[in-house]
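Sharing a chain and its predicted structure for anyone who wants a worked example. Both blocks are below, sequence first, tokens second.
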Amino acid sequence: MLGVAVRGAVIRGVEAVPVTVQISMSNSLPGITLVGMADPNVAEGRSRVRCAIKAMGFEMPQAHIVINLAPGELRKTGTGLDLPIAVAILATTGQIPTEGLDECLFVGELGLNGQVYPVRGSVAYAMLAAREGLTLIGPEEEPYGWVASERERSISLLSELAGGVRNVMGRDSLPTLDITKVHIAPDLDFVDVVDQEVAKRALVVAAAGEHGVLMMGPPGAGKTMLARRMPTILSPLSPEERIESMLLHSVAGQSLADVDAGGRPFRSPHHSVSAAGLIGGGKPVTPGEVSLAHRGVLFLDELPEFNSHVLQALRQPMEEHVVTLVRAEGSYTFPSDFMFVAASNPCPCGHLGDPGHTCTCTPAKIQAYQGRIGGPLMDRIDVFIDVARPNTRKVIRGSEGMTSGEMAEQVLEAREFRSWRMSREGKEGNRLKGMTMDERARSVLEGLAERKKLGGRGIARVASVARTIADIARHESVGVEEVIEAGSYRPRTE
């Protein structure tokens, strides 16, 4: 007997892909056969479904059940197909009404007691349901109804479907969230970082122009404090960016609370992270840290301690703002448009150049330590900051400097001026060839390039930083002062 077909879905990359659960029953030996390229998590669902059906007072049919997950060529992963499989069995055996099933998308993992549990990718499933014009029926979660409009209903137990999905669809929708009115008050503020005004200025420049940053200084100088406060000077996520970021966090099984509140993502993986953890991958393929930092900040503390091949894998995401992973079953694409911030000690002992301590490292050890970062990655960093140890008296007395609010205002004004300028000059106006720069400034840039032996990419990056500094000052033309300041952000070892 050919049974009822029920709509489900699985996560592939950052999207929810529709899956149709088809049932066929025969009078042969009782059991369940699952076909359609199901991974072990999906296959184990047979036992969960059987126990959940019995625990809820339904009857498990004494027949051989063949469950087909279409399309057959798509590999099915995760546990979200438990609920649609159970619904298909109950509808086929007449234990729940079939009316309205074709208007619903079912997603959820079943417990042995019949409880419906959340699965990763809730935002992706909500977006699929909205796109297909279906009502999403799944476990009760945080109300992200604004993603899927009002077509979302929750159930906590399988038995709630005994009266049919029409009863569930008739319930009130999940409360929606007006994301234009959400504001998160940051717990961190740059005012807490004492005696680092030069570094703060450099971070304003980096944030205004979306430049990569490397801070180098002794332990305890405040590098990590500075980095963790970077999101506070960036503008809040726009509604479109928030949905995009929530989608990535959802399919990776990460908390959505901070992103839902409007804060820019801040990711700080440990230096033991693998290439798959940083770039993305695994089985099933999930986004890595570079994608979870999309529209936010990726901070790598103790940069030389990271595996060199992991660091070199950053080059393509930093340049192209996208990660493409090719596997046997196909290719996966994840966005990775993030602001790169890194911190490092200047040497293994950490005291090179620190006037209060004596460095015990040999020149060979210092060179080897700094060489772990690799030239290709260093070549893609625009702003290098020497972070000195703060003055003891200022720290103890709690002197204050620029606040996050003041810095954020400078960043916002610089970006607004850049938008106005580029609307007049065109895209070429932000490149070296089409950049408005006076002759004295060009002479200074040429002298700087000769003195520091800069290559073409290095010259272009100095010019780009100088253009950002001019935007902060609201200057249409790049002058000598901007070039000199931009040159000060190059590494000392060049």
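Comments welcome. Residues 96 and 424 are 64 Å apart (CA to CA).
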